[in-house]
Specification:
single chain, mainly alpha, Growth Hormone, Chain: A, 14 helices
Length: 421
Amino acid sequence: MSNNETRTISQNWAPRFFTIWTGQAFSLFGSALVQFALVWWLTKETGSATVLATATLVALLPQIVFGPFIGALVDRWNRRVIMIVADGSIALATAFLFYLFATDQIQIWHIYAVMFIRSLGTAFHSPAMTASTSLMVPDKYLAQLSGANQLLQGLVGIAAPPLGALLIEAFSTQNVLLIDIATAALAILPLLFIPVPQPARDMVEKPSTYWEDLREGFHYVVRWRGLLGLTILAMILNFMITPSSALLPLVITKVFNGGATQLGWSEALFGVGMIAGGILLSVWGGFKRRIVTSFSGIIGIGAGCVMIGFVPADKFYLLLAANFIIGFTQVFANGPLMAILQSTVAPDKQGRVFSLLGAGATAMMPLSLLVSGPIADQFGIRFWFVFGGVVCILMTVIGFFIPAIMNVENNHEAALTPVTE
């Protein structure tokens, strides 16, 4: 029996959950607009690749460094309060940035600081929301919900950049920041009135300390061989796939002699693929065994990357098709995997598990970029697409033959064994 099936979920769960979800969706869109506005301001004001790289690193560090430690707090504290405080803190940081822009006091380090605060808030908010979902949504709908989340990300990815550019030209950067403050308020408002279930703690008679909870979270992941295998697999796959998006502009300019228009079409087709995949997954839900759906999606991503590596320079439309395939199959790789974790990980440990998994996967991003750059310079821009894509396919095929991973939804008993000194 899945973990959230041991709890009684109200029959009218949908209005409550989707009221919260809609507010979060508006907040996600506002955050995407602000991210675009800040990156564009840094690009326009400095024109420095180092500045942009530093901004990216600053935005990743809180989730990498603090993520594993934040998870234990998410499991100890009230998750609804965490989401309210996280959204509120991000809004306050954005409001301060608005003041700096309006008074013409803005400096680059201010942007870095606010990006750091926004990322730290996300590091708290994301596992709190994800862990709360399994207590509010019946297990049979988790895969469809993951599809809806992927659909939302695809829509935001397509709409936010052009709309952000339009708004910046029409209203200036600081006024775009006000949109994020307004959408954060829309995210907070439902949380003030709709209760969010809290997981039952294991040790009621003997309350645990923070450090004991932290240790228990690591123990939980390590003892559950299927979950540990999935975590390692996710880290390797993220390492292999991340450079593809960073190197794609160079592929378009140097291999296909394209420009901003071609890059825009490529990103648009990726977003359309995500939307199409999100619609299908939200309706279909995937195969009965969610891990099969996820693995099939990963193989599709790998195939799309390999395709980009071999597309002839005069067949740009095939690159667009490959990007569509990657966007489409990414939904099936990520959505069911999240549903697996939400339905099988003990509710009172989900904050720690999601934070550990997120920190591990995010940490692979800067590492892979450091490694892939010199390799691409040495062996050609498209070498990494073929290499990374092939490794993804091979690793996933190997995963099909590892029982602990294939049966991850049914082999979590070992993880529940108490920690012994």
